[in-house]
Design a protein that fits this description.
85 residues; mainly alpha; 4 helices; elongated
Length: 85
């Protein structure tokens, strides 16, 4: 498991997304979009970002060969399958 300390790209993107969303709100809500449409759009964008982040983190390689062997053993082990049920 990886432990991140300090500022990460996700924190930086989140911190920069807040002023961008506020500026977009001020520009689009009264004239182009309704408030509910804007909130729905932000929800879709946030969900897409969450899926992209999760996919990226799950696609990272194992930190060691021992971790890969451990994971492979537990995926094929009959005792592990019985413990999951």
């Amino acid at each position: 498991m990886r432990m991140f300390e300090g500022s990460t790209i996700v924190q930086g993107a989140f911190a920069s997304a807040i002023p961008i969303a506020a500026a977009a709100w001020l520009v689009t809500v009264p004239t182009i979009l309704t408030a509910s449409s804007f909130v729905a759009l932000l929800g879709v964008i946030a969900a897409f970002g969450w899926v992209a982040k999760t996919t990226y983190l799950n696609a990272q390689p194992a930190p060691s060969v021992a971790q890969q062997v451990h994971d492979a053993h537990h995926l094929t082990s009959p005792t592990h399958a019985r413990r999951r049920k």
